[in-house]
Write a structure and sequence with these properties.
236 residues; Helix Hairpins; four-stranded mixed sheet; 5% strand; rod-shaped; binds zinc ion
Length: 236
C-alpha cells in the first residue's frame, strides 16, 4: 500500500514553490522603492532650484509694485507742483520729485540684478530637470523588469494554486489538516524525512529509535519529539 504521506509530500513541494513565489512577490514593491530612492538627491536638488526661482520671482513682483507706486507719487507731485502758489513751494516739489526719482533708479538697479538672477535660476532648474530625467531613464529598465517579473509571478501563482487544489484532493483529510497546521506554524516544512543516522530533517535532532521505526509504518503517523514536524521514513 502506498504510504499516506506520499501525497502530502507531493503537496508540500507545491506549497514550498507557492511560498517562494509569494515571498518574491511581496518583496517587489520594496525593491522598486529602493531603486526609486536613487532619485531622491536629484529630486531634492530640483525642488530647491524651484523654490529659489519662486523666491526671486516674488521679489521681482514686489519691486515692480514699488516702482509703480513711486511713479504714481511723482505724477501726484507734478500735479501739486503745477498748483504751487509760490516759488518756494514749487522748488520744494522739484526736490521731492528728485528724491523719488532717485528711489526709482535704486529699485530699477535692484530689478535688473534680480532679472539676471532669475535667468540664472531658470538655467539651474532646467539643468536639474534634465539630470532628473536622465536618472529616471536610467532606472526605467530596472523598474520595467520588476513589473514584468511581478506579472509573471502572479500568473505562476494562479496556476500553482489550481495545481495545489488538485493535489490536496488526493490527500487524507485529517492528515492534510495536521500538515497544514504545522506548515502554517513553521513556514518551511510540515513533513520531513528521517536523515541518515536517524536525525529529524527539520530540526536535525536525534530521533528515538521507536520514532524512526514508526516513521516507516504506513499505518502510523509520527511527529518529531523536538519540533513537532511529521517525520517520514520512506522505504529505500
Ligand atoms: Zn524535528
Amino acid at each position: 500500500m502506498p504510504h499516506p504521506l506520499e501525497p502530502i509530500v507531493a503537496l508540500q513541494k507545491k506549497d514550498r514553490k507557492l511560498l517562494k513565489i509569494m515571498r518574491e512577490l511581496r518583496d517587489i514593491p520594496q525593491r522598486k522603492s529602493d531603486i526609486e530612492a536613487q532619485l531622491g538627491s536629484a529630486r531634492q536638488k530640483l525642488a530647491t532650484a524651484l523654490d529659489s526661482r519662486k523666491h526671486t520671482e516674488a521679489q521681482l513682483k514686489d519691486i515692480e509694485l514699488e516702482i509703480e507706486s513711486l511713479k504714481e507719487r511723482i505724477v501726484k507731485y507734478k500735479q501739486q507742483q503745477m498748483e504751487a502758489k509760490t516759488n518756494d513751494q514749487y522748488r520744494a516739489f522739484v526736490k521731492e520729485i528728485g528724491v523719488v526719482e532717485g528711489d526709482i533708479r535704486k529699485q530699477e538697479d535692484r530689478e535688473l540684478l534680480l532679472m539676471e538672477e532669475l535667468e540664472r535660476g531658470k538655467g539651474i532648474v532646467a539643468e536639474c530637470e534634465e539630470r532628473l530625467d536622465t536618472e529616471k531613464a536610467g532606472i526605467a529598465d530596472e523598474l520595467a523588469e520588476l513589473d514584468a517579473r511581478s506579472t509573471e509571478l502572479e500568473e505562476q501563482l494562479e496556476r500553482l494554486k489550481q495545481d495545489r487544489m488538485r493535489a490536496a484532493e488526493l490527500c487524507d483529510k485529517p492528515l492534510l489538516q495536521k500538515y497544514t497546521r504545522i506548515m502554517n506554524n513553521k513556514r518551511d516544512f510540515g513533513v520531513v524525512l528521517v536523515e541518515a543516522g536517524g536525525y529529524c530533517g527539520g530540526c536535525h535532532m536525534k530521533l528515538p529509535p521507536q520514532v524512526i521505526h514508526d516513521a516507516r509504518n504506513p499505518t502510523k503517523i509520527v511527529g518529531c519529539n523536538f519540533c513537532g514536524r511529521i517525520v517520514y521514513n520512506p522505504e529505500p
